[in-house]
Amino acid sequence: MEKASHLSVIIDLSPTQWHLSAQTSNQYPLSIETFLSQLLAFLNAHIASKHENSLVIFGALPGKSVLLYSSTELLSDDVPSLDANSYLPFKLVDSAVVQRIMNEFDAIGELEEEPPCALVGAVTKALCYINRITHPSSTTAGVAEDPSIVHDPRILILSVSPDLSSSYIPIMNAIFSAQKLALTIDVCKVYGPDTVFLQQAAHLTNGSYIYLERRDALLQYLIMSFLSPTSIRKILAVPKQDKIDFRAACFCHKNIVDIGFVCSVCLSSTHYLLLSCDLAVFCQPLPVCSTCRLATLVP
Amino acid sequence: MAPRNRDDNFMDVDSDSDISLLGDVERRGKGKGKGKAADKRKKDKGKAKAKEQAYTWEASYTRSWDTVQEDEAGSLQGAVEDLMARGRRRRLLAPAAAIRRTIIRHLVLLLDLSAAMMDRDMRPTRFDLMLQYAREFVVEWFDQNPLGQIGVVGMRAGIGERIGEMSGNPQDVLKCLSDRTRLEPTGEPSLQNAIEMARSSMSHLPTHSSREILIIFGSLTTCDPGNIHDTLDACVKNKIRISVVALAAEMKISRDLCDKTGGQFGVAMNEGHFKDILFELVPPPAQRAVARAGGPGANPAADLMMMGFPTRLPDSSPPSLCACHSDMKTEGFLCPRCMAKVCDVPTDCDICGLMIVSSPHLARSYHHLFPVKPYETVTSMEGESETTPACHACARIFSTSASTAAASEGISLWGRYRCPDCHNDFCTECDVFVHDVIHCCPGCGK
Amino acid sequence: MPVQSLKNTDVIVPQHAPHPLLPFLQSQSQTTLTRLYQRPSSCLSIFRLLGPIERQLIMNLLWLESALSAATMSAWVLPEGKNAYDSALTVMTGLHIAPNSAVKLALNPTFKSGLRQAITGGGNTGSFGVPTDKDAKRQSANIENLDAYALERWETILHYMVSSGQGQNPTKPSQGVLYLLQRSGLMNNVHGAALQITSSGFQFLLHSPHDQLWNLLLQYLHMAEERQMDLVEVLSFLFMLSTMDLGREYSTEPLSETQKAMLEDLRDYGLVWQRKTSSKRFSPTRLATTLTSSSPPLPSSHSTGGSRMADGTGAVALSSGAAQQGFIVLETNYRIYAYTDNPLQTAVLNLFITMKYRFPNLVVGMLTRESVRKALGNGISADQIISYLTTHAHPQMRKNNPLLPVTVQDQIRLWELERNRLKSAEGYLYKDFASQADYEYVLAYAKQLDVVLWENMAKRCFFGTLDGHANVRGFIERRTGSV
After folding, report:
1. pTM value?
2. Is the same domain home to A110 and A208?
């Protein structure tokens, strides 16, 4: 029998990036409102596909990450009034997501400088959530979710912000946890330059990374590439990024480098690895390893 | 050393792999020389056990229920929670001081293939069990030491026999361990010959990598052509660490090999214990850091290694010759310096000699480097003006009343554990998951 | 060895067996279906009944304004998925969701707009049911009551069936249900006396509740056709029920006459609940709201309260009543321990085991040759017994791999094979050939046609199949004629 699938969606809600994205100078301007309406149609399509499909939505806001919607528990009691023309679960998602995003945006207010989006927090929360539903523990009170329902968990990241090199290590750790949980991370780059880390995330977890070229066709992209569970992807192919950048971020300037220097002291004895930048691009190899504070011999 | 004493207490319970529920991460925390103490304790315990049980086959049936105890209601709930709490406590007690680890590891696995390995005191035979565990060990070892390499040498009929060359590919190593008939035990073992062979295969290695020899030894004799103590001195000089897992009994020379080179020595009491002491050698060996006060220049071996992070070519790219095998291939990796195409990473570029690693390979070791701070147990809800209703990570709703279980250290009656940095509350499962798997706090994002 | 081959086919059984309703829908005319697709709730429900590939294809096409060339779509199909893709397209054409065209792929415009509307909401079709306002005076039924009600109704039906053969007198379901059972061939009255369960009825009992429900509903649909009910109305009402929210009351006002008449029938089956027969409001039960969810492969614990996600498991949990999880432990010595106090489950088990002891919460029995043969005689197949035991296995059993002891599985199959020692085939016996040469000549010809079932060289006769007779006879006649 076909199994139900679980989808965790992570929405990058950086106000600055969305503002830039909506600029009419773009070839295909995309405002957050249009984006949300198309995204909601996609989410509804996921719920529509199977009665048991579950859905969790996290938002990555500047400096924090929030749970926007979870199909296992209702966050608020204000169930929208029924109307005869719409299917209740769809309405629940739509109203919850839109309302909470608006609330969060209002709460942000005017800031001098926008802190970077907490994408890492959202990804790790999604992992914890998936860990919870796939490994129901006996210690929780009450009846846990049925262990025999194996969800086919997936994470979909809708990213608009560029790579944040300081989040390199946590993202990498998250990727390895995803591999351990045998889940797929899909990435849709809605706006902004390609992100190397998310490319690696999709590649290492066997997901697909899509750079949205025709942003007016967002919904079609979402449905064609990210709706199908892994079992269907063996029959109907999904687009994949072929060329993968395996670059890392250096520890000293947080630059993404393709040739780095790795402190062998760290490798052989201390806690830290040092990757300093490429000679030609930035700095000389550091005389002192910035993390282990030991002198280094320039090769 | 108060913490260590407590550590010992629960180590007693944990000597069987069956019940090591909560990751072996903390085992790494053990310092050098600690293994010795633990071994002694285990041996004491072994003696005690020997009185209780007459036959080895009874052993596997007698332990599991010793560790859990029912509460008054006959439920195991308390026992399970207690086990989880132990895991938590262990983490809290993990030494906070800097530990030096080796990330690029080179290991030679020395397998005893002498007639003594056909002994049936471990089922089915020592030899079969050793092969089975060795395979599991290799898989686990590569998982935790992605940049490492393993070579395999056998001791058979008085000589050392090279079974597998040093390789960074787990499949290669597993392949040479898979052919049982090729490894059929016979004759006497020779420690000296085998160690010399292992030593020579590691002599060329650069200084930044560790050199280790792991001996699985079932015989009680060794037949050597010369003075084995000379070999031992040479190993000490070459900074080769020798660890021995003995299947029969402790031999003076095996003990000396480990003590002098800083390795671990263990005698396996039964199948489960064999696996335990073998797998204790999986995590990178830790050394107490040379006091940091030494400051710059304290370690003359420090140097920077240049590493390249390649670009992966898509499967659909036009085929071209690779630098390593001169084969026509479409897929491959481009060396970032000389743009030569190589088939696989990690490797040294055949053209410019640059060490090419894929960054995920390196990154796999990072969680050793940046562990998440242990969460604090929320023991009292008083004075909390505003509390979150649900776990910050998985949105599980916290119970509002304290659990009735007996309070013990490391368990929160409210099921809440708080990150010292971001002050968010997490549930028990997420606490364990965050520290054992993700290695990244969902609240702070690092 | 036959046993082996049986086991193998078990594994190969296609993962996604098509839903039983689909063939029925495919047999309907295009106009009927198009009328059905006008309602968004029907589109959504039918969409859910389809297989995963069909669903993905529909979604791919849903938001396209123009048709897609078939080549573009099939470019996405991996070589190993070609067959699955083709059969998915056939299903879609059969349902008139996509017109039959080898060049262009597009959705039926009615279906397209219906499903779009379902997903985005809006429109004014009111196809998801008109909810009533909260009634302050009377408390509406809560979810537990609805579950209890549905369970009681459903088990009454099943219990009636299972105990009909044993001379007991359980509560009779209503006349409508009895008629339906009789019509569907699950029960029949042989001598004008009380209804007796038939062999297909026995098989029915071992199905999962989800299958049972659809089985009955399909019969209901067939019956509706005969009763001159408008099929579109009937179907769309069922689909509407399946998209309703559990524990809510809906108004009967917007329903058509046909649908109001249906309410009465569905109440008998336990699909809807009404306070009074004349009540202006009704609530769907879990049986109804989970119609379009696939029944989970294994019975499961009851869903946690308020958990929407786990609703799908409800239907199964419902029928197993008190023991919400699996309750059967089967040992290698053919002993069965069933932790249940549910008379229905006991009765069903009694179909194929010999009872040993009964305790308040435990039934102990044996699988014996006699008991299994009795079941086989009733028309239950070995596979059904095995799948029943598998689905209802106790959680403790789930740790075993394979779940059921292999010896027992094989033995049940062997007992079934025992019954199949004789195979009958119609045909003709050819004998009294004049000469050995004649005989061999004709036999060789018959063998060429592959129609020989049995031959005996010594007696100079052979047995051919019915359809080969004309050829063989013609051959013999031509031969005798020429001589």
Report:
1. 0.72
2. yes
